[in-house]
Design brief:
Blueprint lengths: L1 H7 L16 H13 L3 H6 L8 E2 L10 E4 L29 H7 L2 H17 L4 E2 L23 H16 L4 E7 L11 E4 L2 H8 L1 H8 L4 E4 L3 E2 L2 E2 L4 H11 L5 E3 L8 H7 L17 H6 L5 H17 L2 H4 L14 H15 L1 E5 L11 E4 L23 H8 L4 E4 L4 H6 L2 E7 L14 H13 L3 E6 L15 E4 L7 H10 L48 E4 L8 H6 L17 E8 L10 E9 L5 E11 L10 E10 L4 E8 L6 E3 L4 E3 L3 E10 L2 E10 L2
Parallel strand pairs: 2-3, 3-4, 4-6, 5-7, 5-16, 6-9, 11-12, 11-13, 13-14, 14-15
Antiparallel strand pairs: 1-2, 7-8, 10-15, 17-18, 18-21, 19-20, 19-24, 22-23, 24-25
Helix pairs in contact: 2-12, 4-14, 5-6, 5-14, 6-8, 9-10, 14-18, 15-18
The structure holds beta-D-glucopyranose.
Length: 702
């Protein structure tokens, strides 16, 4: 048997080897079937659930080793909470990369690829086969404590980033795990919430990024904690079999989120492949063995459950790689300096300049007073994505190292110091974390400090680091500049300081809308008024079989993010896709090569981008589609393509986009199909969702 299994593996990728074509799924499934025939009932039952919290189950006697997995969104977490630490060998250290939303803010798919590749290499360096990411739940509410782990509010932006992240990561032999499927868009009692979502929103907003990851070859998917339309995602036949495998065409391994399912019969029959972490935190009404004994489940049902997991491990060479236990790939430590470059570049391209009265970049001879709660701190998101990193660089360290100016640091400055300072940089933000929402407003003391600074000193630059939008209405108008930096990773403040002094020209764009007031948001009433956000951690209701649930109505349907604000004529503080540069750009001369578009004949839309300023810089040209006379309510604009282009001062480039017939489609809930209506469509080209410089029209024939 030993020989059989290992010759079954298509190949074993090594991080340095040139990738070879993967085995076809059919073949992997045939091989999985041959393996399953050799498994005993006991082994099959054992393989329905995980081992030691972070291992996929195996069957030692049949040479199916257990596969180690690691979290996730800011690089590789060294996990000291695994119960049996003797079973794992940890690397000395791993890089703390910027949070995932930073990747989205770069609007640079190539960088997403490099990011995925770097994290893929560190996953292998950590002796793991699967990285439990990327996360891609759509940003629906600025209070969601996990937005920093995701890719913003727009399905097309998230899709382009996910597919590149996945191909980058999987080129190293690390398997990506798309999470959390599906509609896990709040952390408020995340294990008790029932997302009530219509089919059209599911198809147009919440699944496209998953579909893009699947089409890019993602090997695994993690289901979500919440219920979707009445059933827990991890045991829902609709979610896994109909939607994920059926509609989206996924063939790989599905795993549950940790402690998120409650009924073995449903789990096995839903299309789910493995219950994680497998330590039975809940009282299931019956065990798999009892259900098999009672003939409520057959052995065939178990075979069906295990097939995709085994086929995936065979197809991607994981059994081969783990045959002697956790593989030792310490040589990949040599790649870590390159990873720091990717990390730096992501922060450099993902930091968004929201406002600038000309104070930035600051001149060399100006003295800086660095204030605020985070002047001396490296902000980071919390939870399973937290990565310790090493050689942390705080705002104070970074500013001191890039400027010859004097930098004085006072977390809580006096009024006199504020008045006197040449330039004030206020480092502020929020500490977002998994398992809890956080208020849109900053902490009172932090808010007061910014207000005081902008009142006393007109040269105040506010540097925000947060996982989502915050309330800036109290000081935005008075601030000389606002820079939005997310959780930038262990060396991200080097990039931010380089932006502040002008060594780097900012080119980040908002991957979500920042509303003026939280009441403007479609999710404004999601959390009951009196509820405490900080206590709203997941409520697993241990030992209770039926946890109490509450409904989250996605009554805005497809009108998420800028689609919502535009349809309601609500002007946000900063629109989706917005971000300034130290140079200026003009978009002119929009053209389309053919005014009629059909399924057989896409069109090419082009526009000329010119750098009209005095220094080199990058701009993101964004293409939005509007159906002029829709038959169902449609957003005023939908992003369909974007390109980031770097230009020397005075230089121009013709930027072109292939627009496909399917880019005009909406999901028809009656026919359950994508539909493109005949008629006219406006194609808008701009540099944010609210800055449209050029338009062309195309039509679809009757
Ligand atoms: C999170 C997942 C994570 C898993 C394992 C869960 O609480 O929701 O994103 O991968 O834990 O740490």
């Amino acid at each position: 048997m030993k020989k059989l299994i290992f010759s079954l593996c298509a190949f074993a990728l090594t991080a340095t080897a040139v990738a070879q074509p993967l085995m076809k799924w059919d073949e992997a499934y045939r091989k999985a079937d041959a393996v399953i025939k050799t498994l005993s009932l006991d082994e099959k039952i054992e393989m329905t659930h995980g081992h030691n919290k972070f291992f996929l189950p195996g069957a030692a006697e049949k040479d199916l080793p257990r596969v180690f997995m690691v979290d996730a969104s800011s690089g590789v977490r060294i996990n000291y909470s695994i119960p049996d630490q003797n079973e794992v060998r940890h690397p000395l250290r791993t890089t703390q990369f910027p949070s995932t939303i930073t990747i989205a803010a770069t609007f640079n798919p190539e960088l997403a690829h490099q990011f995925g590749k770097a994290v893929g290499e560190e996953t292998r360096m950590s002796g793991a086969g699967i990285l439990l990411g990327p996360g891609m739940n759509i940003y629906r509410s600025s209070q969601c404590g996990r937005n920093f782990e995701y890719l913003g509010e727009d399905p097309v932006l998230a899709s382009r980033m996910v597919e590149n992240y996945v191909t980058g990561m999987q080129s190293t032999g690390t398997l990506a795990c798309l999470k959390h499927f599906l509609c896990n868009n709040t952390e408020f009692y995340r294990r008790n919430s029932n997302s009530v979502v219509d089919e059209r929103a599911i198809m147009e907003i919440y699944t496209p990024a998953f579909k893009a990851g699947i089409d890019a070859g993602a090997a695994s998917v993690m289901t979500a904690y919440n219920l979707l339309n009445g059933e827990w995602c991890g045991q829902s036949k609709y979610v896994i079999t109909d939607l994920l495998r059926g509609e989206l065409g996924f063939k790989g391994l599905v795993m549950t989120d940790w402690h998120s399912v409650y009924d073995w019969k449903k789990i096995v029959l839903s299309g789910q492949n493995v219950e994680m972490p497998g330590d039975m935190q809940f009282d299931f009404p019956a065990s798999v063995r009892e259900l098999v004994d009672r003939k409520e489940l057959s052995e065939k049902d178990l075979d069906k459950m295990l097939r995709p997991m085994i086929a995936t491990c065979i197809r991607f060479g994981l059994y081969e790689r783990f045959k002697n236990g956790q593989p030792n790939e310490d040589h990949l430590v040599s790649k870590m300096p390159e990873h720091l470059k990717v990390s730096y570049q992501t922060a450099a391209e993902g930091t968004v300049l929201l406002k600038n009265n000309g104070i930035l970049p600051i001149a060399d001879n100006r003295q800086i007073l660095l204030i605020g709660p985070w002047a001396n701190k490296l902000p980071q998101g919390g939870g399973s994505s937290k990565v310790e990193g090493y050689n942390h660089i705080t705002p104070a360290d970074a500013l001191r190292s890039v400027t010859r100016a004097k930098v004085t640091v006072r977390e809580k400055p006096t009024m006199a110091e504020l008045r006197k300072a040449d330039i004030v940089v206020c480092a502020t933000g929020t500490s977002d974390r998994e398992g809890t929402e956080r208020p849109f407003a900053l902490l009172v003391a932090d808010e007061e400090l910014i207000r005081l600074a902008v009142d006393l000193n007109p040269n105040t630059i506010v540097l925000v680091n947060s996982g989502s939008g915050i309330d800036m209405s109290g000081w935005n108008d008075k601030a000389a500049a606002v820079l939005y930096g997310w959780y930038p990773g262990q060396n991200g403040f080097e990039a931010i300081a380089d932006i502040i002094v002008g060594n780097v020209n900012p080119s980040g764009k908002l991957p979500m809308t920042i509303e003026r007031s939280f009441k403007d948001s479609p999710a404004a009433n999601l959390v009951p008024k009196a509820a405490s956000l900080s206590k709203a951690v997941g409520n697993p209701n241990e030992k209770l079989f039926h946890p109490a649930t509450y409904d989250v109505h996605y009554s805005e349907g497809v009108f998420v993010g800028y689609r919502w604000y535009e349809s309601k004529n609500i002007k946000p503080l900063y629109p989706f896709g917005f971000g300034l540069s130290y140079t200026s750009f003009a978009l002119n001369d929009a053209k389309v090569d053919n005014s009629v578009i059909s399924a057989k004949k896409p069109v090419t839309v082009s526009v000329t981008l010119t750098n009209t300023g005095k220094r080199e810089g990058a701009e993101v040209v964004q293409l939005y589609v509007t159906e002029n006379n829709p038959t169902v309510a449609r957003p005023k604009k939908e992003l369909k393509a974007f390109k980031k282009v770097k230009l020397a001062p005075g230089a121009s480039e013709v930027v072109s986009f292939d627009l496909l017939h399917k880019d005009l489609a909406f999901w028809n809930e009656n026919s359950h199909k994508w539909q493109v209506n005949p008629g006219e469509y406006t194609i808008s080209l701009g540099t944010s969702s609210a800055d449209i410089d050029a338009q062309v029209t195309v039509s679809v024939a009757k």
